[in-house]
Amino acid sequence: MNIHEYQAKALLRSYGAPVSDGRAVLKAEEAKTAAGALDGPLWVVKAQI
Question: Which among 12, 15, 21 is positioned nearest to 44, based on CA atoms?
Answer without folding.
Answer: 21
